[in-house]
Specification:
This protein is of the alpha/beta class. It has 15 helices and eight strands. An eight-stranded parallel beta barrel has the order 1-2-3-4-5-6-7-8, surrounded by four helices. Strand 6, helix 7 and strand 7 form a beta-alpha-beta unit. The radius of gyration is 27 Å and the shape is elongated.
Length: 461
């Protein structure tokens, strides 16, 4: 059975857009992994969204033309999206002409795929002229998009045209969706993110419902591995899961929205490429491991460990399994009287984390290291904190000596101070690595140890 017809990447995130060098690298990567469409649509490119009526300068045109050429040589169509919805007047001939002209400027660079994005704008008509001309937002958007499509079609015989609606996820049965599906030219493709903005699962039923109501197969915009908005502290380098292979039979394709970190995104994109090509034969773990092997063949074990500590994402919403298991095993061993074994396990994990972080920092190539440096740093700090916690647990036996030496208790207090200082430092970092399970464990160890010291020293109140 065939995979997805369109297998793509949409640079559609909020935050600092990629550099042109990043885009060249991504398009080259896409060509080597079976992707066939890249869409330029960074939300914080002002000429894409806020100042959409303005043309790009000659420097941008030259650089983007190189990306189009790279795509042509790599089997990847390079498309351009414009997001005029914040200020556009749907009834304005001037705005219509301005947008068509801007698209045609890109056609001179060799672009054949054009997208009109209405996402993330108010769900109402903002201009009095539009409220007089149209009965609803969907009617206005369909009319405007149809005219853009017709104008471009008169000039560009091989035109591909895509619309991202304002309502782009959910149950696909609102008046907006029905109206847009009925009134938009059937040749125009419609993007859809699934049940949620960032969907944990995309079942076959979602594709069937969207196809029915939009009156065409949708093009999935999959918001993974994107990490903008409140997800900024997360590093989405985990396996690609939760997509029913049957959606390939009821959609025109799927494009993934990557992270602000272009090269780190290649890990998840490389795994997802296998799904897009052969969704029914896809094995998420195998593809994830193979993707890491391709990107960092000399650091496979290290990247797998870092990935296990950074699973938290919309498609992996639970705490990362490995640190959760470490904490659960520690508590189990401790409750069964195997205290030394429990402490040893924590110590071994802390050493593995520190050693892994050191190897990543010393051996990752430039751009990948730059993009992941904050996560590697915090990962290493958790390893150091676990080391301090295991030392505190080992030295807690001093408390139970009949007459402990003062120096031993001072040593324990010093360890506690070091751990609390590091805990405080970790509260100021900007990333989430491993979730919160270690923080809770170490905090409990510190509090219980201080309580025992207070009792021993007779100053518990």
């Amino acid at each position: 059975m065939a995979g997805f017809g369109i297998r793509g990447v949409v640079e559609g995130f909020y935050g600092r857009p990629w550099t042109m060098r990043d885009r060249l690298d991504i398009v080259d990567f896409m060509g080597r992994h079976g992707f066939n469409l890249y869409i330029y649509a960074p939300k914080d490119d002002e000429l894409h969204r806020f100042r959409w009526r303005e043309s790009y300068d000659s420097r941008f045109v030259k650089a983007f033309s190189e990306i189009v050429e790279k795509g042509s040589n790599s089997g990847v169509d390079v498309g351009i999206a414009i997001s005029p919805g914040l200020t556009v007047k749907y009834s304005s001939d001037e705005d219509l002409n301005t947008l068509v002209y801007k698209y045609l400027e890109f056609s001179k660079m060799g672009v054949k795929c054009f997208a009109l994005f209405y996402d993330d704008i108010p769900f109402h008509l903002s201009h009095e002229e539009d409220r007089k001309a149209f009965s609803s937002l969907a009617q206005a958007q369909a009319s405007f998009a149809n005219q853009v499509y017709e104008r471009l079609g008169d000039r560009l015989p091989s035109l591909k045209f895509i619309v991202c609606p304002t309502e782009y996820h959910g149950r696909a049965e609102s008046n907006y969706v029905v109206t847009l599906g009925n009134q938009l030219c059937p040749e125009i493709q419609i993007m859809w993110t699934g049940p949620q903005v960032c969907s944990q699962f995309i079942p076959e039923s979602d594709a069937l419902k969207a196809k029915e109501v939009f009156r065409r197969e949708v093009l999935y915009w999959d918001n993974y591995p994107v990490n903008d908005g409140s997800m900024i502290p997360e590093l989405h380098i985990g396996p690609y899961v939760g997509r029913d292979p049957e959606i390939a039979s009821h959609s025109t394709g799927l494009v993934l929205n990557p992270m602000n970190q272009a090269h780190a995104s290649m890990i998840a994109l490389g795994a997802a490429a296998d799904f897009l090509i052969d969704p029914w034969g896809y094995d998420a773990t195998t593809s994830w491991v193979n993707s890491i092997k391709r990107e960092v063949p000399e650091l496979v074990d290290e990247m797998l460990l870092l990935g296990e500590y950074n699973l938290l994402s919309p498609i992996h919403p639970e705490q990362s399994e490995r640190p959760s298991k470490i904490v659960a095993d520690f508590r189990r061993l401790k409750s069964h009287g195997r205290f030394e074994e429990a402490v040893s396990m924590i110590l071994e994990e802390s050493a593995l984390i520190v050693r892994t972080a050191e190897r990543l920092r010393e051996n990752l190539r430039g751009q990948l290291l730059e993009e992941m440096a904050l996560w590697i740093y915090e990962f290493e700090q958790w390893g150091k904190l676990l080391n301090l916690a295991s030392g505190i647990l080992e030295h807690r036996r001093f408390i139970f000596e009949e007459t402990p030496e003062r120096s031993k208790l001072e040593l324990l207090n010093n360890r506690i101070d070091e751990a609390e200082d590091l805990m405080a430092a970790l509260s100021r970092v900007r990333t989430l690595s491993g979730g919160s399970v270690f923080r809770e464990l170490v905090a409990e160890i510190l509090i219980r140890t201080k309580g025992l010291l207070s009792l021993k020293e007779g100053n518990w109140k």
